[in-house]
Amino acid sequence: MNFIRGQHRVLHFVKYLRLHRTSWHRYASCESSKGSGGGKGIVLGLYEKESGKGPRLTAAGEKFDDRVNGKISELICETKITGRLGRGKVFNNVDTDFRCICVVGLGLEGIAFNELEMLDEGMENVRVAAGIGAQSLQALNCIEVHVDHMDYAEQAAEGAALAIWRYDDNLSKKYRTIVPKLELHGSPDLDSWTRGLFKA
C-alpha cells in the first residue's frame, strides 16, 4: 500500500514538472545559472508596492521594459517580486544585448532624510540595491554590468563598486573572481557616476 502511495506521489510530481516546465525556463535565480558565464548584465530598480499600487520600476527600468515589449513587468508579476529592499531576481535571455537582467527592490518610493538616524534613506537604499544587483551579476560571471541610476547616480556607483570589489592579488589566476566593468544606464549624469566610483 505504501509503495502505491509513493508511486502516486512521484507521478503527481512529474505531472507538476511538465505543467511548469515553460515557466522554469523563462526566468532563473542567481543560483540556477552559475554555470554560464560572460556577457553583459543590467541592474534595474523596483519600488516597493504600496497600498492599492503594485511594485513599480524606476524611470530607466520602465524604458527598458518598453524596449523588451513589457516582458520585465510580466516576469515581475509571475515571480511576485514585491520591491522590498534588497530582494529581487535575475532573469536570463530576455534581451539580445543583456544576457542577465537583475531586478532588485529599492524599498518605498520617495523616502528622504531621516532626522532620527541622520541618514538619507533614499540614497542608502540605492546603494544597497545597486550593490546587491551588481554582486548577483558578478556571481553569474558577467564581464560588464550596467547599473540603473535609480535617481541617485553617485550612490548607485558607490554601492555597485564596493559590492564587486575583491582583493585577490595573492590568489592564483584560476581562483580570482571576475570584477566586471561598471557602466551607468539611463542617465546622462556621468559626473555624479564618476564621483561615486572615485569615492568607492
Automatic annotation (TrEMBL):
GO terms for molecular function: metalloaminopeptidase activity. Keywords: Aminopeptidase, Hydrolase, Protease. Pfam families: Peptidase_M17_N. One of its GO terms (biological process) is proteolysis. This is Aminopeptidase-like protein. Residues 43-174 form the Peptidase M17 leucyl aminopeptidase N-terminal domain. It comes from Drosophila silvestris (Fruit fly). The lineage of its organism: Eukaryota, Metazoa, Ecdysozoa, Arthropoda, Hexapoda. SUPFAM superfamilies: Macro domain-like.
